[in-house]
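Treating backbone geometry as a discrete language has practical consequences that deserve illustration. The sequence in question and its structure tokens are set out directly beneath this paragraph.
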Amino acid sequence: MKYMTKEWMLKNRLTSAYRLVRESERAEKFDEDFYRQVSEQLFDKYLINEREFNRRPNPLTEEQMCNRVRRELTNRQRLFEYLPQEIRDRIADLRVCATGFASAEVIALLKPFCENLKAECDAVKDRAHAETDDAESFLAEPQNFNECGEMFLLEIRQEGGDVYLVFDFGETLRIKNAEIVERESDTIYPFDEKIADSGWSLVLETELHRVGDLFEVHFLIENLDRSDEREWWYLTVRGTDLKTIPTSKLKKRQA
């Protein structure tokens, strides 16, 4: 059982479409010169941000940064491609819309669409949170899964019938007497802020459910590989109990 699926996440990201655009008369018709102008401006803006973030040991080269920005802009355009057809039919150039400009007519359509979609997504998330709270009431120790937020997954390990999930904030989640019932990716990219192209495996959403006498914890994860390609995947683990352990204590115990 999972509520916050890949489809849900796509819709949730799409709720931001209205906030990403502002009105422009030049967006009312196809205008290649306007697209070239605004796309270059957005590229420069993203590149400046990337250069600021790139101040670290082993930084990206200028070419790598440019390639990363191009991929981000491509991903942004792909998001707009999921708008309903009745809105897309009113957009003169989807590329211009994805860079942040739209006609007054399109903006008037986007606002109610995004508001309704957000209400739909929020209702799904509220239901997932409610079931998570209910399941947590049966744990030996509450873990506050609804407050986890995004976190980097560094390692998945199976030992003595238990599953250990190691996260970047210095804590490890232990699922007792566990079974991995779903794992769509075999690859984990441990994020290292000192390495510009380390990639990451980022937990986007977490939910917990009660399945009979067992607990089932579900993660929606984003992999970013070293080529900046993104993939969403599911990890679901079922066990008799869950407990968060400081990673440092776990390492001392193993030693």
